[in-house]
Design brief:
By secondary structure, the chain is an alpha/beta fold. 44% of the residues lie in helices and 18% in strands. The chain has eight helices and eight strands, in the order H-E-H-E-H-E-E-E-H-H-H-E-H-H-E-E. The chain has helices at 12-18, 34-47, 67-75, 110-124, 134-145, 153-164, 183-201, 204-216; strands at 27-32, 52-54, 81-91, 97-101, 105-109, 175-177, 218-221, 226-229. Strands 1, 2, 3, 4, 5 and 6 form a six-stranded mixed β-sheet that branches. Helix 2 (34-47) crosses helix 7 (183-201) and helix 3 (67-75) packs across helix 6. 22% of the residues are buried.
Length: 231
């Protein structure tokens, strides 16, 4: 039986904040300052009640795919994604001005990721086994998960290019993209942005927890290769 994918709704009023999608996709792109980026994330958190906020790297918590598979699904219009590019203006050697864009912050919907995982299970004829661990589930789903990954290196590169740079900027000499910031720093930035948004939206004890986290800061866990809140 055909099951329609439960995409989240992006109403017209929200598009004033998240921008318009790249044609043929659900990739909503916006650009602006660091301050506007924080406001963008807060607005998404408030509208979707915390459902939107996971990064492409975090999708693997729900779906056993590599980041390239997430990029491909976004490019194919099968996943809603919100992009924000931090921008500034610079003077060129020839005295002209052009826009400089950092590689984007990207946030996705947790409910869509869970729906993707359920879709994968249906394709595999998967039945949950009592007491089965997440690792065991991922192992059983690995063969069908491969179908969602890019088939060739070119396909993977095209998907990565799609999420790194806005297609409408292609060939525009008045726009320059800077190399991606250090991955560790970008991950930390996203954690901090999310904590700031939650501190602003939550109330009572929950808000206090996020405020204390922001006060204590974060530290890099070399073993786990991730940022963690200081105890």
């Amino acid at each position: 039986m055909f099951i329609q994918f439960p995409f989240i709704e992006v109403p017209k009023d929200l598009r004033k904040i998240v921008g318009e999608p790249t044609p043929g996709t659900r990739a909503y792109r916006r650009e602006g300052t660091h301050e506007e980026c924080g406001q963008w994330l807060e607005a998404l958190g408030e509208h979707y009640k915390g459902d939107v906020g996971i990064s492409p790297a975090g999708v693997s918590m729900f779906v056993p795919v590599l980041r390239a598979g997430v990029h491909k699904r976004i490019k194919d219009g099968k996943l809603t994604a919100f992009f924000f590019y931090i921008t500034r203006v610079e003077n060129t050697f020839f005295g002209t001005r052009r826009k400089v864009k950092l590689r984007p912050y990207i946030v996705l919907s947790v409910s869509e990721c869970k729906a993707w995982a359920a879709e994968m299970k249906r394709r595999a004829g998967y039945v949950d086994e009592p007491g089965e661990t997440l690792m065991e589930q991922r192992k059983r789903l690995k063969p069908v998960a491969a179908a969602d990954e890019p088939k060739t290196r070119k396909e993977a590169e095209e998907a990565e290019e799609f999420v790194d740079a806005d297609p409408k900027d292609k060939g525009n000499r008045k726009v320059r993209y800077e190399e991606a910031l250090n991955t560790e720093n970008r991950q930390q930035d996203m954690f901090l942005l999310l904590a700031e948004a939650m501190a602003a939206m939550a109330s009572g004890k929950k808000a206090e927890i996020y405020r204390k986290r922001l006060e204590k800061g974060m530290e890099w866990d070399k073993k786990e290769k991730t940022w963690k809140w200081k105890e």
